[in-house]
Amino acid sequence: MTRSSAAAKRPSGGLPPGLLIRLGRLVWTTLWRAMMARLAPSDRTGAYVRPAGQFRGVIGAHGPYPPEAGRYRLYVGLGCPWAHRTLVVRALKGLEEAIGVSVVQPSPEAGGWVLERPEEGCRSLAQLYALARPGYTGRATVPVLWDTRTRAIVNNESAEIIVILDGEFNEFARRPDLELYPAELRETIDRWNEKTYHSVNNGVYRCGFAQTQEAYDRAIEELFTALDTLDAALETRRYLCGERVTLADVRLFTTLFRFDIAYHGLFKCNRRRIRDYRNLGAYLRDLYQLAGVAGTCDAESVKRDYYGNLFPLNPGGIVPAGPDPANLNEPHGRERLGALAGGLDEIA
To answer: Per UniProt, where does glutathione bind (predicted)?
Structure first.
């Protein structure tokens, strides 16, 4: 049999020979684990462990960072839920004129976030971190609350930045009377934050970044148990703490907004979509429709940043066409559970 006739009889479709498959799987798994170790550090069970922020300064009249309009700047990635929290609070409080925003883009080739244009002599977020702290070798993450006067990072922990934005810039806010972290509700807010952070906010990442089946199974069970609990709680209350929106809602919202867009598919959180929940789905639409919030939401950036840039989870880089976020403008019907304090529903 000639070589040409043998080639003619060789199947043109189907999988390559088994040996090639086994070799490819070995090589890809080895490379995948190496990339995941950098992208998503894990414990001995393969469960994702989120590193804590390294810059934990505060804004205050008697400290090194007094509240001033125009002095501070937020560095954010539009796809990032943690950075999105700061944009939502900035919009709800009406701080757009007092606190500027710079948008960074994820770049797998650069190994991190890059600036749309050079700022402070920097082209990447890593360079900005090094400018603030020479010799810094940790993770360069968003959000960043930056002091333009001293060229320093005040804080890079989203949970703390949103408390700062809510309480320390009221003299420059268009809606200073809106309290998202009121003293009388702080204990309740903190309890909700504790419940939602591990299982939901970080839970979706624990699913998507799990490096063993055991770690994934544990995370997915905790995630949907928490979502079921939230859906039941929202049956009789408009927001997590009652009739007024709080930071607990803001922190949950940015995860829910991304859930059907990215986490359901890419992160394997696919038991149910948020829109399949009667109360959680309507709650998401309610928050999305608050004045100024929709303007902080960029579904296309979310899809591009997750599907297009998380190479270990989506090697082909193919960005899906859906879902269509237009459903978030549909009526939510949650007014029956109580009016929002401060009249945000009526603000244009």
So the answer is: 113, 139-142, 157-158
Average pLDDT over residues 42-70: 83
Whose CA is closest to 146, among 92, 91, 75, 212? Answer: 75
User: In this predicted model, which residue has the larger pLDDT, 53 or 118?
Assistant: 118
Q: CA neighbours within 13 Å on the CB side: how many for 256?
A: 26
Cα angle for residues 299, 35, 153 (degrees, 5° grid) = 65
From the list 132, 172, 176, 179, the residue with the least C-alpha distance to 155 is 132
On whether 140 is known to bind a ligand per the annotation, the reply is yes
Other CB atoms within a 10 A radius of the CB of residue 200 amount to 23
Q: Is the peptide bond before 51 cis (omega within 30 degrees of 0)?
A: no
The answer on pLDDT for 261 being more than 50 is yes
Query: CA dist 210 to 2, 112, 196, 207, Å?
Result: 50, 21, 19, 5
More confident residue, 48 or 99: 99
The CATH code of the domain at 183-346 is 1.20.1050.10
Q: Is 37 left (phi over 0), alpha (psi -120 to 50) or beta?
A: alpha
Residue 216 to residue 100: CA distance in whole angstroms: 39
| 255 among annotated binding-site residues | no
What SS3 state is found at 19? helix
CATH architecture of 72-172: 3-Layer(aba) Sandwich (3.40)
Residue 226 near residue 203, CB atoms below 8 Å = yes
Cα dihedral 45, 225, 206, 247 sign: negative
Domain map (residue ranges) of the chain: 72-172, 183-346
Catalytic residues: 80, 205
Q: Which two tokens stand for residue 87?
A: 């944009």
Q: Which amino acid makes up residue 44?
A: R
Q: What is the pTM assigned to this prediction?
A: 0.87
Q: What is the mean pLDDT of residues 138-143?
A: 92
Write out 93-160 in H/E/C secondary structure: HCCCCCCEEEEEEEECCCCEEEEEEEECCEEEHHHHHHHHCCCCCCCCCCCEEEECCCCEEEECCHHH
What value does the mean pLDDT of the chain take? 89
